[in-house]
């Protein structure tokens, strides 16, 4: 019997068995928030400014705590209490039936922005007329709202990557809700839309987290090709390694797949511009890959 009702990705299991941990890269907190805190959000939350890295939980009438799936909390890499039926991606690379993790056309996706480096990547994508998908952080949206809007204006799809890049399976239900609601509010205040697509930081997701993400109407997006570009700052991975792996993946998967990259720092953006040349101009956005809508709602 398949307890999990899910797929375990071969490639990812392979990586897991080699003791790789799925890591990720979040930019350092530098610039202060510049996006004004909207009056509607003051009216709703009673606050007057954007929160810090631990945003407050604000109850929402469409989020039902009693409908959240039960699963033990775990910190990143501590998987002994995690069972198959929890369908953890970070522990056993488990994919739920409604997770998006690949694409009929090999396509890049970008996490952790917007940053001051994002525009370099936008210019490269424009050269090839590529429309891509950016999973942004709330704390970055309120620091770089013009970069966020420029990314939208150039036709890319904006998805949520939480408010402040926490490893969600280690958080309480209320803390996870706070990470999602503040992310969504920052996207609403910046881009006047509500996101459909969600990517968990560090790939940290199980059926408890999924059951919260779904209540927001969002859909979980993973990947089947990790560039490990966050390692570029270490001595363990060079840009040439990334480019070689992408070339090999493209051949092995016959031009299908979804690539994880980051527009977080200059090294990852520089690598991404070269990956653009390898993957080529025929790339799809996540909604096109999945056959879904761009946003839950767009406000005029
Ligand atoms: Zn990330």
UniProtKB/TrEMBL annotation:
Alphabetical keyword list: Carbohydrate metabolism, Chitin degradation, Cobalt, Hydrolase, Metal-binding, Polysaccharide degradation
UniProt-listed InterPro entries: Glyco_hydro/deAcase_b/a-brl (IPR011330), NODB_dom (IPR002509), Polysacc_deacetylase_ArnD (IPR050248)
Catalytic activity: [(1->4)-N-acetyl-beta-D-glucosaminyl](n) + n H2O = chitosan + n acetate
GO CC aspect terms: prospore membrane
Cofactor(s) listed in the protein's UniProt record: Co(2+)
UniProt EC number: 3.5.1.41
Highest taxon listed in the record's lineage: Eukaryota
Broad class of enzyme this protein falls into: hydrolase
GO biological process, one term: chitin catabolic process
An MF annotation (GO) of this entry: chitin deacetylase activity
Domain NodB homology, chain residue ranges per copy: 104-287
Protein name per the record: chitin deacetylase
Species assigned in the record: [Candida] railenensis
């Amino acid at each position: 019997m398949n307890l999990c009702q899910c797929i375990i990705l071969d490639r990812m299991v392979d990586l897991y068995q080699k003791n790789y941990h799925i890591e990720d890269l979040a930019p350092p907190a530098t610039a202060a928030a510049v996006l004004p805190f909207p009056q509607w959000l003051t009216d709703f939350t009673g606050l007057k400014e954007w929160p810090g890295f631990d945003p407050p939980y604000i109850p929402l009438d469409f989020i039902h705590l009693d409908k959240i799936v039960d699963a033990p909390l775990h910190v990143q890499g501590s998987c002994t209490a995690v069972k198959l039926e929890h369908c953890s991606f970070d522990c056993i690379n488990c994919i739920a039936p409604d997770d998006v993790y690949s694409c009929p056309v090999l396509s890049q996706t970008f996490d952790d922005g917007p940053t001051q480096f994002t525009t370099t990547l936008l210019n490269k994508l424009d050269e090839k007329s590529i429309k891509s998908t950016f999973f942004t952080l709330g704390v970055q949206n309120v620091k770089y709202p013009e970069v966020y809007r420029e990314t939208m204006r150039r036709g890319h799809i904006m998805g949520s990557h939480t408010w402040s890049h926490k490893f969600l399976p280690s958080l309480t239900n209320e803390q996870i809700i706070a990470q999602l609601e503040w992310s969504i509010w920052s996207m609403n205040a910046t881009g006047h839309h509500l996101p459909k697509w969600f990517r968990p930081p560090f790939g940290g997701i199980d059926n408890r987290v999924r059951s919260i993400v779904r209540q927001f109407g969002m859909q979980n997006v993973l990947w089947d090709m990790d560039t490990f570009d966050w390692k570029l700052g270490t001595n363990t991975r060079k840009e040439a390694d990334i480019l070689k792996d992408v070339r090999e993946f493209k051949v092995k998967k016959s031009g299908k797949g979804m690539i994880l990259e980051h527009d977080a720092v200059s090294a990852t953006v520089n690598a991404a511009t070269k990956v653009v040349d390898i993957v080529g101009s025929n790339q799809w956005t996540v909604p096109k890959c999945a056959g879904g809508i761009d946003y839950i709602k767009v406000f005029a």
